[in-house]
C-alpha cells in the first residue's frame, strides 16, 4: 500500500525475497515466440500488409498525395534552385578529391538525387557528393590506377597511354567502387541491418570527419599552388604529400595561389555573415555562385590560361556518357574499402536526416535509407558518378531557404541537368584553384569540431578519448585504415568500461530506503557487520576476476584465506578435544594444559582441497567463536562481517564462465559464516541460474531479494535487531536464544546459554 503525504510517500508492504514475492504474486504464463512464429508472421500476406510494404518501399507514395501545392511549391522551387547551384559547384569541387575530371562530379550530384526522390524517407537532406566520401573513393582510385610515369609500363598492351586514358581508368575505378558500395548498402537495407550505424558513435564520426577535413585541406594544396604531387595511399601519406608540396614550393603558380586565397577569404567572411545574421536574411547569400561567376568571367576575359598558365576545368562534354561495366577485379581488390565507404556514407546521411526528422517531427526509416542510398549509388556509379551521401552545408541551404519536401531536391537535380546538357561549357575557363578554394570553404564546420574536445572532456573522458584517437588514426593511417582502427578502439573502450567497472560500497542515506555510495555522503547509516557492494556493469568471463578483487578490497579480507586459517585451527582444536585436554564445565571450557605443540610439517602438508572445504563442527560438543581469543594462542584473523549484500541491479547479464567464478565467491563467504544476499536482479537472471544448475545445498535461491532495503531489513530481523533504532552509534541489548558466549577463550558450550550484548 502506498500513501502520499504531501511531497512524501509511505509504503507498507512485507519484506520480500524473490521467492516470497513469487509466492504472493504469481506470474502469468506467456507464450514466447519461436523462430517459426516469426517466419509465419513474415510470410503472412494481406491487403493491409501489402499496402504497408508498398508505402515503406516507396515513401513518395505516402507524402506526395498530401503535398500542399499552394503552401509549399514556391518554397520548394526557391530552395531547389539555390541548392542546385550549390550542388553544381560542390560536384565540380569534390571531383578533384576523387582525382577525376571535374565534370564527372555533376553526375554524382544528379543521379542519386533522382533515386532518393522516390525511395528516401527524409524530406530535407540534399543527396550528392560529400567531401569525406570523395576522399575515401579518391584514395582507392590513386591506389589502383597508374601514375603518368607508369602508364606506359602498366598498359603496354593497350593504346590508351595518354592522360585521357588514365583519366578514363580513374573514372572506371571510382564508378566501380561506387557501385560496389551501393550494392553493400542495398543488401544491408534489404537484410534490415540499419542498426550497424550505432557502432559509429557521435564522437567517432566527429573525430573522423575532422580528420577527413585535414586530408581534404592537404589534398587541395597542389591545386592551390599548381604543383605536381605524386599520389600516396599508404599510412603517413598525408605527411608525404606535405613533404612533396613544400619541397616544390618555389614552383608555385602565383596566379592560382592569389586567386584561391582571395576566394577562400571571401567565402569564409560571407559564410560567417550568413551564420551570424541568418535570422535577418531572407535567404543565405549564395557566395559560391557569385565568386564562381566572377572568377569564370575574369579567367575568360583576361585569358588566365594562356597568360599565367593556370590550370582550368577544360572541356566539358555536354550530355551523358554511356553506362560502364564494373570491373570484377576492382570488386575483389576494394571490398574492404567499399564496406567502409558504405558505412560512413550511410552514417553521415542518417545522422543529418535524424536531426531534421526530430526538428520537423516526421519518422525516418534507417533500413529504407540504406536502400535509397544503395540504389542511388548503384545508379550513379553506372553512369560514371562517384559515391554520394549528403553534404551538411548543402542540406543546410536546402532547409534554410524554405525546402519542405524532396520536391526541392528534384528541382536541384533539374538545375544540375541543365548544366550537364546545356551550359556546362560556360565553366570551362574556371580555374581548378577556385574549385579547391570552394571545397575548403565547406570545411569550416568540420574543422570547428576541434572545440568539441573540451566539451567532451567535461562530459565523458572516454568519449573525448575516442574523438582524439579517431582523429589521430584517420590522420596518420589514412581514412580507410583509420576508420577500421577507430571502430576497433571504440569497441575496446566498451570492453574497458565493463572489464574495469567502478564498483562501490553503499550505505543508507537519510534513514530511508535510499542507498548511495558511502564516500559521497557524510551522514550515513550502516548496520554493524553488514556490507553492501554494488557492481555497475555486466559480469562475464573477462571481468569476474576484477569483480572479485574489488570485492575483496572493499571488505578488507580474503574469504578463502580466512577459511583455510580456520580449518587449520579446527584441526588443532580437534586434537585437543580428542586428547582430553579440553574439559566441559557449566560455564564453558577449560584447557588443562598451558601449551600444545603440533607438527608444523604435518600442518604444512595439509591438502589445499581439504582446507577449502566448509567448516564442520558437528562432531564437537561445542561451538567456536572465531572472533574471540582462541586457546593456546591459536591465531585466526578476526572479521567484523556477518552479512554481505551484492547489488546487481546494474548487472544486465552473466555468462556461464562467470557463473562458476561467482559461485566460488559465494561459497567462500558462506563457508566462513558470512551470509550473502543478491538484490536487484530480474526474473530472467534467476531463471538462467536455475537452468545452469547454479544452486545447491550451500548456495540457495533464497539469497535473492527485490531491493537492498528488503535484504537489510531481513538481516536485522534475522539478527533480531530493532529497526526503529537504525543508528550505528547506539548500543542495544537483546536476549537471544540462539547465541551464547564463551567463558574461556573462543569456545562455547552448546548447552550453555547466557545473555549477550550486541552492537549495530
Using the alpha-carbon principal axes, give the shape: elongated
Q: How many strands in all?
A: 17
Total of DSSP H or I helical runs spanning 4+ residues: 33
Overall mean pLDDT: 83
Low-confidence stretches: 149-161, 721-760
Give a quick account of the main beta sheet: strands, pairing sense, barrel closure: 7 strands, mixed
Please state the CA-atom Rg, rounded to the nearest Å.
37 Å
Percentage of residues in helical conformation: 40-55%
Structural class by sheet pairing and helices: alpha+beta
CA(first)-CA(last) distance = 29 Å
Strand composition percent: 5-15%
Structure description:
This protein has 760 residues and is of the alpha+beta class. Among the domains are: 67-146 and 165-446, no CATH class; 504-557 and 639-723, Transcription Regulator spoIIAA (2-Layer Sandwich), CATH 3.30.750. Helices cover 54% and strands 8% of the residues. The protein has 33 helices and 17 strands. The strands form six sheets. Strands 5, 6, 7, 8, 12, 13 and 14 form a seven-stranded mixed β-sheet that branches. A two-stranded antiparallel ribbon has the order 1-2. Helix 14 runs parallel beside helix 22 (432-441). It is elongated. The protein starts with a strand and ends with a strand.
Put the structure in a nutshell.
Helix content is 54%, strand content 8%.
Topology of helices and strands:
Elements: E1 2-5, E2 8-11, H1 18-24, H2 35-43, H3 47-57, H4 60-63, H5 69-97, H6 105-108, H7 111-119, E3 127-128, H8 131-144, H9 151-154, H10 163-190, H11 202-219, H12 221-225, H13 237-247, H14 254-276, H15 287-301, H16 304-308, H17 328-333, H18 335-360, H19 366-382, E4 389-390, H20 392-400, H21 407-423, H22 432-441, H23 444-447, H24 452-459, H25 461-477, H26 479-499, E5 504-509, E6 515-517, E7 524-525, E8 530-534, H27 544-555, H28 559-578, E9 582-585, E10 588-591, H29 600-604, H30 608-611, E11 622-624, E12 643-647, H31 656-670, E13 675-679, H32 683-691, E14 704-705, H33 708-718, E15 731-734, E16 747-749, E17 756-759
Parallel strand pairs: 8-12, 12-13, 13-14
Antiparallel strand pairs: 1-2, 3-4, 5-6, 5-7, 5-8, 9-10, 11-16, 15-17
Helix pairs in contact: 5-20, 5-21, 5-22, 7-19, 7-21, 8-10, 8-18, 10-18, 10-19, 11-25, 11-26, 14-15, 14-22, 18-19, 24-25, 25-26
